[in-house]
Specification:
With 263 residues, the protein is of the alpha+beta class. It has 2 domains: 2-154, Regulatory protein AraC (Jelly Rolls), CATH 2.60.120; 159-261, Arc Repressor Mutant, subunit A (Orthogonal Bundle), CATH 1.10.10. It is built from 9 helices and 10 strands. The protein has helices at residues 110-125, 130-154, 159-171, 178-185, 189-200, 204-222, 227-233, 239-250, 257-261, and strands at residues 11-16, 19-20, 26-31, 35-42, 44-49, 52-57, 61-64, 69-74, 81-89, 103-104. Helix 1 (110-125) packs antiparallel against helix 2. The longest helix is centred in the middle third of the chain and has 25 residues, at 130-154. The radius of gyration is 22 Å and the shape is globular.
């Protein structure tokens, strides 16, 4: 999943309410630039996201990513009670999406509900530095949601992909090609590429680069190797490409790692 590998994501929450809908409650049709993460506690509602209808009920998690066209109304006979979080990822990451579908069933656990109620208390009381505390609680909510999602997803990963992930993790410094990996698991390279993306959320090349860059960061933090030596030991022959990719993924150049590690 793409989000797993973005350690610098910071959610900036600008709207949170305990929404106890009246019978005529609606959200007018509009394109949103923020992310809408809504926990339905009671009742029912219909959401229309990018022209597709979704009926939601108690226990459902609604996720509407930025850039979506959103519209909604509750059921008059059974008004919705929900806790919506509207937030942006701090620049420049607002295009990163959570891995959930528009509606996910059975995601609201007792633990998560406890975090939501704690968040509500902090958000409403607005004590000094409440935004820091609120963000921390929201990140705990995200962590629990993502951990549960990852655990469910890992059980569904094709065993051939699990085998290749282990191999890539151990052999990342070698000149790996998807054709060679396809031979190891006796699959067509094109089909393997598709299966790999479906299973991990990344292409083979994106995954390999991520493993290499993460290892390069650890090597540079230890201070035993130069940037050039690190690049070569992590499978990069082009130092310029390595430096540009490192900065794109980490947000700072490889030459800055040692200074950051020393604080």
């Amino acid at each position: 999943m793409e989000l797993y590998y973005h350690p610098h994501l910071v959610p900036n929450i600008f709207l949170f309410v305990e929404r106890k809908c009246f019978p005529d409650w609606t959200i007018q049709r509009s394109t949103i630039s923020f992310h809408d993460l809504t926990f339905v506690i009671e009742g029912r509602a219909s959401y229309y996201i990018n022209g597709e209808k979704y009926n939601v009920e108690a226990g459902d998690l609604i996720y509407v990513p930025g850039g979506s066209v959103r519209e909604a109304h509750t059921f008059k006979s059974c008004p919705m009670h929900a806790f919506p979080f509207n937030f942006y990822w701090a620049s420049p990451h607002n295009d990163i999406r959570l891995p959930f579908g528009i509606v996910t069933k059975r995601m609201i656990t007792k633990e998560i509900l406890g975090y939501i109620r704690e968040f509500n208390q902090v958000w409403m009381s607005k004590q000094p530095f409440y935004l820091i505390q609120a963000r921390a609680i929201f990140e705990l909510i995200l962590h629990r949601l993502l951990s549960n999602f990852a655990r469910q997803s890992s059980m569904q990963v094709d065993p051939r992909i699990k085998k290749l992930i282990a191999y890539i993790t151990e052999s990342y410094a070698e000149p790996l090609k998807i054709g060679d990996l396809a031979e190891r698991v006796k699959l067509n390279p094109v089909y393997l590429g598709k299966l790999f993306k479906e299973s991990t959320g990344s292409t083979f090349r994106e995954f390999l680069n991520r493993i290499r860059i993460n290892n390069a960061e650890m090597m540079l933090a230890d201070g035993d190797f130069t940037v050039t030596e690190t690049a070569e030991r992590c499978g990069f022959q082009d130092i310029s490409y390595f430096s540009n990719l490192f900065k794109e993924m980490k947000g700072y150049p490889p030459s800055a790692v040692r200074k950051i590690a020393e604080g």
